[in-house]
Input
Amino acid sequence: MEDRKTLALLKEILESFGPAGFERETAAIIKKAVKTYADEVSTDKLGSVIFSHKGSAERPRVLLAGHIDEVGFVVSGIDEKTGFLTFTQLGGWWDQVLLAQRVIVRTEKGDLQGVIASKPPHLLPLDEQKKVVEKKMMHIDIGSTSKKETEAMGVRIGDPVVPMSPFSTIKNGKLGMGKAFDDRIGAFIAMEVVRRLAEGEIKHANTVFGAATVQEEVGSRGAATVAHIVDPDVAIVLEVDISGDVPDVQSSEAPTRMGKGPSILTFDSSMIPNQPLKQFVIDTAKKMKIPYQLSLVAAGGTDGSRIHMSRAGCPSVVLGVPTRHIHSHVGMLSFEDVDNAIKLTLELVKCFDKKTVNRFTAF
Output
C-alpha cells in the first residue's frame, strides 16, 4: 500500500464510527470517495452505498459486496449508584477480549470515551479469579459517579458504542493493524476495483456494481436489499478470513495464512459457493499467477448468505483477506494479500461476459 492518498482514505474508513445499524458516518465517507469515479452512486433505504461502472454491456451485472458495519455495542442501561453503563453486543464478541479496552460512546451531545471494566480481581474470592468474566458482569466506565451525571452527559439507552482503536502500519508498511477490517477491507477492495476500471479505462463486457453493505454482523440485512436492487447475475463477496497462523490453531480449523494470498471460501455455514464459479476463480488465479488459498469456515457466514438466494438465485463466491484477531479491538492483515485480492477480483470482472457467466448455471 504505497499510495499515501489511498492509505489515508483506508485509514479514514477504518477509524470511522459505524457499528451495525449506525453506519452513516462510514457510508458518507465511501459515498463521497466513489462519486469521483463511479458512473452512478445510490443508496438503499437501509443505508448501503451502491456504486457502478458501465462496461460494453448492460448484462451480466456483477456485484462486488463488502460490508461496512463493525462489531460494537449498544447501551442497555445505566447503573443507579455509579452511573456505569451496561451494554448489549452488536455482532459477535468473545468475553475475554473485552476487559480493560477503551471504547467510544456516541450520544446526542457528542462522543464520550470510556473503558470496559468489572469488579476488581483484588475483591474476588480465589475461585472466582480463575473464572472468565462474562459480558453480563462488565460495565463501561465513562468517569461518571451517578446515573444523574451520566444522563446529564447525554447518554441514553440504545446509544451505540465502538472500540477505540487507531489504525497503524508495522513492518515497514507491509502490515496493517486496527479495528473494522471486518469488513471494511472488503468494501475498500470493491472501491479499488471500480476505481481502477474507471481510471484505467479497462474494458469489461458487463456492468459492475460495488456495494458497501450495512448490518451484516446482525444478519446480512443490507445484502438482502442490495441484491434486490442490483439483481446481479454473478456476485463476489469480499471479506476477511480467519488467519490460522497463530499459536494452538490447527490448519484443519483455519487453513489460511497471512501473506500467502487471498482465500477462496469453499464452504461456510451460510453458503456453499457456485461450483463452476469457484473453479473459474481458481483457474483465473493460476492463469494470472496470483497466489491464493482455499479456505473453509465451519461456523459463520457472510453477505453471500443473502445474495446467493436473491430472486431466482445468483452464482456467488467469497474471496477473503486472511486476518488475525477479527472481532476484537485490533486486527492484523497483510497489504500484499489486499493487493492480490484486488488484482484477482479485477481479472475476474474482465472475464465475466455473458457467455462465461451463463456457464455457471448451465448443466
Remarks:
- The first strand starts at residue 40 and ends at 43.
